[in-house]
Amino acid sequence: MPESNNNQNPTLQIVTLDELKTQMRVEESIEDSLITQYGIAAERQIIGDTRRSLDELCVMGYMEYHGTEVPEGITPGVAWFPSPLKVAILMFAANLYRNREPVAAGVTVQAIPYTLEVMVKPYVKLAE
Asked: Which domain holds residue 24?
């Protein structure tokens, strides 16, 4: 799970505020702080769902892109974070933004098949 410096507020590590706002179709800056908090929550949740560390996921992304093991002396950073998981973070944060309450009265809501679960499942650690 992403760690934050104890002396600072948590920050986005994988997605940017601009990427979040594009996903959410938001142009104004009045809710930037709220959108950032949704992004941080989404990053933590999606990474937590995989039962892997941020570093492990970046290594996996590097290996997927290059098709080889990571060479000695190289530590893949967040630039190598797997794209499907990045999309899952953007989708989850946008869902939090659009649905600000835990319930919706009088509305029938159904999950869209083959979205978050499909993107996250390949990266879930099955056993320790």
From this structure: 17-101+110-123
pLDDT (tens digit per residue) in 21-72? 999 999 999 999 999 999 999 999 999 999 999 999 999 999 999 999 999 9
| Per-residue exposure over 11-43, b if at least 16 CB sit within 10 Å of its own CB, e if not | ebbbbeeebbbebbebeeeeeeeebbbbbbebb
CB 89 within 8 A of CB 15: yes
- Residue at 5 is within a domain: no
Number of domains in the chain: 1
What is the C-alpha end-to-end distance of the chain, expressed in Å? 16
Predicted pLDDT at 60: 96
What pLDDT, on the 0 to 100 scale, is given for residue 93?
96
Judge whether 10 lies within some domain: no
The answer to whether residue 24 is domain-embedded is yes
Better-predicted residue by pLDDT, 7 or 46 = 46
Residue 9 lies in a domain: no
